[in-house]
């Protein structure tokens, strides 16, 4: 082909591509002429910032350069200014505090996203308000359509538990299921129980309780594995709703400065193991393939399915991409204090025969843990009561003796109430205490009623003791049990003052600001084997960070703000 013809053809091709590009939406539009980026320079430089890095090698900095979504250099402005090129964006923060993106170490992410669109019962302070919110939800439902909600806490309105009788008059044609804030108890109306076949002749399942009247009739309250009776008949939530829930949850987390979550799945006592796997295959893999992921997730799967998790990791490695990481397996040992099902050495106050519920047989738990651990999976087990935690600590000793010493980062989820001396046992094997500070805002008032003030004062949320005992602390929310709100959780861990309190609850267990920040950043990253890519603002790690309204470190340390100004993921603004 003659050179002139070749040039004309090339020019025509460029013109066609340029014309087509105008039809493409702006975020994906080509730009002409295209100039190759000079890889000597940063894409963005933060300047005049107060950067807390969570990296002990350089705790603070005032400038940071970002390229290809990762931290290129961090330090003084003098050290990064040479990385500014013609196309480098400079973000002058005028002293604003910058933190690593928060990591929430324990969420039920898709459940949380669904809950945002359901009957909101968190913070309800009376029976009348409870009923009114459900009544409002009924108005736009068709007969037979299920009504879901959650987040209620009976301790807030004086302790009386809700019952089907509260709901039957306002929902005669709609089955209702409303979960308690801790996810270990829920209340159904009579229609829902009829659909589920629950009556006075229904036996309590192993690891669960059907609450009854003095005449033996079900009240509507179901505890732990008894909830499965309802779950088995609830209409399946559509894939569309669950996809929307993931996106809704992601936006909510980013608004709070969270850039990575550890999703322990839609897995509770009584819930099918398959639900978490369906979330993975139908929702997370969809979001990954469609490039819808905007937040990093580390996924844990039900322990009974450990061999499937092991096979999945063998096939794909531990990361499907920068967004989706495969963590390990999760199991339950007991229930919750609010539902009187956490397992204690001593009985609940006013209920001398009730020590709580052991929801998993120990031989089964040990054998599954040994197999999971042998296959290289990280293990996370829910334990709230002091007896449950002691049983789990004993079991970890057995696992180490049988499988040998290695970097397993065994996680105890909640570690909420510990017997004397138990906190010191965490350091023996480098255990992770995956704790939720904001739970104490509710339990500070109610725990004394449940287990007695003296027991509550000596055993509850022993963060300082755990650190002293050598535990790695990882902060989370347990959302939707508590809201995702790291800044509030940090305040709670530092001051331990529920609303209206003038003095801390168990002041000896308060943490410093630095300890609390690390528990939501670098320690949380370590707790899920992601400390090589997130958790601190260090060279080579993802540039995930939050900008706060605080204009200096002194301002931040004396008055932790209630919100973030902006959240960045891989160096790009993700909120607002």
Automatic annotation (TrEMBL):
Pfam families: Amidohydro_3. Residues 90-575 form the Amidohydrolase domain. It comes from the Eukaryota. Keywords: Signal. GO terms for molecular function: hydrolase activity, acting on carbon-nitrogen (but not peptide) bonds. Residues 1-19 form the signal peptide. This is Amidohydrolase 3 domain-containing protein. It comes from Paspalum notatum var. saurae.
